[in-house]
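### Sample
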Amino acid sequence: MIGVGDEEEVRFDWRRGGAAVAGLLAALALLAMIFLVKFANDSRERALAAERHTYEVALVVRNVSANVSRSEAALARFVLDEDVKGSGNIYASDWQLAGFQIDQLSNLMRTSPEQLRRVAELRQLYRKRGEELSLAARAALQKQGDAGISYFYQAATQGSGRRLDDKLEEIIRAERSSLRSRIEASQFFSEQASRRSDYLSWIGFIVGLGAIFLGVVSVQALRQNAAARRQIESEAERSEALEQAVRQRTQELWEANQALKAEAAEREAAEAQLRQVQKMEAVGQLTGGIAHDFNNMLAVVVGGIDLALRRLNGPRREVMMHLNNAMEGATRAAALTRRLLSFARSEPLLPERVDSNELIGGMSDLLDRTLGERIRIEVDRAPETWPTYVDPHQLENAILNLAVNARDAMDGQGSMRIATENVKLAANAVGDIRAGDYVKISVTDTGCGMPPDVLERAFEPFFTTKPVGKGTGLGLSQIFGFAHQSGGEVGIDSQVGRGTSVAIYLPRTEVAAPLRIHPATSAQRADTDARVPGARILLVEDDPRVCAATVDALEDLDYDPIACSSGADAIRVFQEQVFDLVITDVIMPEMTGPELIRYLKRTSPHDFAVLFVTGYVGEGESDDLRGHELLRKPFTVGALASAVSAALARTASEPPRTSAAGGAG
């Protein structure tokens, strides 16, 4: 049986046990509350860390986007102005910096497989975009003009740039979504901790120690929150310091760019000086070639005249032989001058609407006589060849020169093909030719061909592979000058041992004029033109020796000439008398021949014929010669007689002709 003492002891034990249980329960509740509060604080810390991580990712992503944009803008300026040392360096630097920042994103995303996958896709888009932009950069670096702009425009239309921006935006959206979920979890656990704290407040003093502990924990949490804010501020300061460093680096790059520009200017000046030296060397070579050939020809002229003077009282046949040799030397000198003028594009052209097929067909007899019987000529004329607007005499001489070169390449025996063809060419398809329709006239031989070193110098004046005395080296140069002066181009295709093909490309014409069939037709008619004895002729020539010789020749031809030394004298004489023909030099001081004729035509009530005499036509003068006869210096008495007869017999419906018989060639 239990006594009262025992009941009090049991009651005490129960209270003590209950207190212990209550204390244990309170301790467990306190531990639970502490755990929940700590869990909420840890969640809040993770949310803050995630927020800082998001800020870092957003900062890097914005830097990547900004650097890509600045790089593409610099590349746009680069392809527009091709400033190799300026915009090109900015493009390369910003593009490389963007790649470095993508690597930083990989480090920041190492704990997120999904984000790592997105960064890997971003890196692939970055590389693909870089390959597209590098085409435009290389084209601009090589100064290919519009090619760089074309590549840049093509890169802009590919869509890789937009996908790159979309991928950056996708990364930021993913980070923001993750941040929102973590913030929501942190808020949830914070609310739970608050409720637990309310429950603990009912316990009062029982959980006082726990409340003090929780207060300490709260203080620590506040301190950690303040530390987190200080860390965020520190990161902001670090970001500002980074931007300052970028600005300083940009300034250094600008200074380096200015130094490179100065170096480029110095290099350009040196290159200009080198080009000038090369031009002087070319002029020296040209002058030496001219002096050599002219000295040879003058030696023939001087020697022939000197021997004729010594034997003036001797046999007439011997005197005539020496005079003929001197005339032949002078004729060759005149022909050389004509070739030099054609090479320099200063030979006056009198273009007409020419049918190439008819012109080549009319040259068959001339080619047979010139090339000989051992050369088999095959003519392949395309049907309905387009007309061209060229000087028919110059075109005939060009084809004849090509045929003679082909004959010499075949040692006088072989097969030659002359062909015409209508072709459409793109810009720079052959040399510097413009895009358009052209008539291709080609001369192909089966000769020895030209090696690359000879082919490279084919158009160089006075360069020839023929033996001494067999050529001047001006044939292809003359053809080159004629083709360019006519708006066309010349192309050469040659293989050693297989032959050479030289093609002249002449632009198609839309000029509405009668077709000129063959130059020899009008040249033959000039010999049958009847003279007009006693015709009054006004001669305008500023050189007294040429004037005296021309007056004597006209008087021998039964004309009545009056000579003037200037345009002003000619106007005064012309107002006092009526003339049937005016013969005037083209290039004269104070007033040129075309200016004189325009004035006389405008002021004279009487019609008169015109004959221009020239040894050289200046720039812009050749257009004034069209519609009139032209006699080139030096000329023989026969050439003068033919030109005067043609000028007097010309009617308004007749096409213009060039009198170049005798020594003019």
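The longest helix spans residues 208-310. This sample (histidine kinase) is used throughout the tutorial notebook.
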